[in-house]
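Appendix B, example 12.
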Amino acid sequence: MTDILKPRDAADVEEAVRWALGAGKTLALHGHGSKAALGRPAQSDLTLDLSALAGVTLYEPEELVLSARAGTPIADIAALLASRGQELAFEPLDHAALLGGEAGRGTLAGTVAVNAAGPRRIKAGAARDHVLGVNAVSGRGETFKTGGRVVKNVTGYDLCKVLSGSWGTLAVMTEITVKVLPRAETEDTLLVRGEDEAAAAGTMAKAMGSSCEVSGAAHVPAALAGRIDPALAGRAVTALRLEGVAPSVAHRRELLETLLRDRGPLERLGEGRSRALWTALRDVAPLAGGDRVVWRLSTAPMHGHRMAAAIAAETDAERFYDWAGGLLWLALPPGDDAGAALVRRHLAAFGGHATLVRAPAAVRAAVDVFEPQPEPVAALTRRLKDGFDPQRVLEPGRMYAGV
C-alpha cells in the first residue's frame, strides 16, 4: 500500500472517497500514523492522508467549546487549552511509548476514532462523551454533519457516539467539535505502598466510594513500579489522585489519609510528581519496550485482580491496573496467538472485553483483535457498515473480518 491521497480540505476528502468508489479502491485513513499498529492490519489499496486537514477552527473558552480539523495534533490542542487554563478532561493517551512511535503525533480524529481515554475516565468519561459535533464524509461519498457547536444540543440520532470508536470504518471525520473543561488548579496523589493486588482492589473501591472525589485510581505491582518513577522501585504502589483548588485538595487528602490509615504506609507525591505519574500511567509507560504482546482488558473493578491472577497462574504476565481496577493492562510473552485463547477463556469466566493492543501484524491478522461479538451485535455492526459504507471502501477489515 504505497499510493497516498492527500486531500487539502473537506471537499477534497469527498472527492477522494467518490473516486475510490468509482475505481473500486479501498482506503486506509491516516493522520500522522501514531495508531497505524493498532487494530487489524490495513487491507486497503490506498492511504487517505488527512494530515493537511489541521488547525483549530473555533475556540470559545467561555463557552467551553473547541472545533478543529481532523488532522490537528492533540498536543497542539492541549497546548492551546492549557494557555487558557483548560483541558480535554478525558485525558487522551499518547500511544508513542507503547507502540514505539514519536510522541505528540496523535490527532483529534484518531483519538475520537479509537475512543481513547486515560485514567480520568472513571470521573469524566471517554472521548465519545466529550464530542459535540462532527463533519464527515461517509463511505457513500456523501458529506454530512451531526451534532453541533454548543454543549446543550439535541439533533435526533447521536451519530457522534456511533462514529466515536468506529476506527474509521464508517466515515472520514473532517472536523470535530469537543467540549473542554477547566483544568484543575492543582493536584496531589496519595500512595499506599506494599499492598498485594487483592488488597489494592479493596483500597481503590473504598476510596472511590468515599466523598473524596478521587479522579484517578491505579495499582502497579512492585515489579513495574520502578518503571514509572525510580523512587517507587521495590514496593507495589496503589495511587489515588485528587484534583481541584488547593484548599479542597488538601482537605480531601486529609480525609483520604484518615480513611486509609489502616491500609499500609501512606505517601504524598505533590503536584509535579503526581502529574508525571499519571502521564506515565495514561500512556502505559510501565509496559513500553520489549517484545511482549499487550492486551487491554476491561472488566468489573473487583474482578480485575482475580482475572489477572488466573492468567498469571498459566503464563508469565506483567500487568498493572487503572480505572480503580476495572482496566487491566496485561503484557504476555510473544506467541503465535498472542495468548488470545488464554485471555478469552478467562475473560469469559469473569466478564468484560479484551483488545489486543500491541502485537506483530501477522498475529493481529490471525487472531481476534477486538472482542468477538455475539451474533445479534455482529448483525447490527454489519447493518451500520452497510448504511454508512456499503461498498466497504473505508478501512475494510480493520475491526472485524469482512466488515
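The chain has a mean pLDDT of 95. The chain has four domains: 4-48, 54-182, 186-282, 289-366.
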